């Protein structure tokens, strides 16, 4: 009696054009979310991406899935920039500066208001990406601190708050007109991070745990 040879099933992979369409949709959504806020119609996103409405819904069945993918794509790019800065830049403070300026260009902070209201911020993919970026910032700052270039009284939370505030234009028409000020003001902030410190900061260094505390209404 002969034993039947198991049939090897081919694992289907997305076609190249399907992947390109998905990337176009994510790019268009990111641009429009930053410019106009979270309620941009899918029809408008499809038009900017140069695809049909059905293609958008085939990739992203609802707004939650699309927003999450946009945020994840931005966090992934930020992580890649940070890793390259660590590997390619010998000057520790220059590596930190490079990461900060590039992060501002990604505009992830413009999506923050909709992140907490549009989808589950504890989604495992989002938590993994967020943990990766937080650990990366800690490495960048610790490297600069050990080199004696970063003042010792600042924490990861301080950096994240300021970058978030300086790179978050109000959603709406004309918000991108503020872009020309972002890197100027970020550089002023970075100069203030350099050691030796020329002033004493009030309070204590802000940690990631501080940022995770719920807001208290007065």
TrEMBL record:
Q: Which organism is it from?
A: Streptomyces yaanensis
Q: Which Gene3D superfamilies match?
A: Tetracycline Repressor, domain 2
Q: What is the name attached to this protein's record?
A: TetR/AcrR family transcriptional regulator
Q: Ranges for the HTH tetR-type domain?
A: 19-78
Q: Which InterPro entries match?
A: Homeodomain-like_sf (IPR009057), HTH-type_TetR-like_transc_reg (IPR050109), HTH_TetR (IPR001647), Tet_transcr_reg_TetR-rel_C_sf (IPR036271), TetR_SbtR-like_C (IPR049445)
Return the PANTHER family for the record: HTH-TYPE TRANSCRIPTIONAL REGULATOR BETI, HTH-TYPE TRANSCRIPTIONAL REGULATOR RUTR
Q: Does Zinc appear among the keywords?
A: no
Entry-linked SUPFAM superfamilies: Homeodomain-like, Tetracyclin repressor-like, C-terminal domain
* Keyword set, alphabetical order: DNA-binding, Transcription, Transcription regulation
The record's DNA-binding region positions are 41-60
| PROSITE patterns noted in UniProt | HTH_TETR_2 (PS50977)
């Amino acid at each position: 009696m002969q034993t039947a040879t198991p049939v090897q099933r081919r694992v289907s992979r997305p076609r190249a054009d399907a992947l390109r369409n998905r990337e176009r949709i994510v790019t268009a959504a990111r641009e429009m979310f930053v410019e106009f806020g979270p309620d941009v119609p899918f029809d408008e996103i499809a038009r900017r991406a140069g695809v049909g409405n059905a293609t958008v819904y085939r990739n992203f069945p609802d707004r939650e899935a699309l927003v999450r993918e946009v945020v994840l794509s931005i966090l992934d790019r930020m992580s890649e920039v940070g890793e390259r800065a660590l590997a390619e830049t010998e000057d520790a403070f220059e590596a930190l500066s490079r990461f900060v300026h590039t992060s501002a260009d990604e505009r992830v902070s413009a999506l923050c208001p909709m992140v907490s209201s549009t989808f589950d911020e504890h989604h495992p993919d989002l938590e993994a990406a967020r943990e990766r970026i937080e650990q990366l910032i800690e490495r960048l700052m610790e490297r600069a601190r050990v080199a004696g270039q970063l003042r010792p009284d600042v924490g990861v939370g301080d950096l994240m708050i300021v970058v978030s505030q300086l790179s978050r234009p109000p959603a709406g028409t004309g918000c991108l007109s503020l872009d020309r000020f972002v890197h100027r003001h970020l550089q002023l902030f970075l100069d203030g991070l350099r050691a030796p410190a020329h002033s004493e900061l009030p309070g204590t260094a802000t940690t990631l745990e501080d940022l995770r505390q719920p807001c208290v209404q007065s």
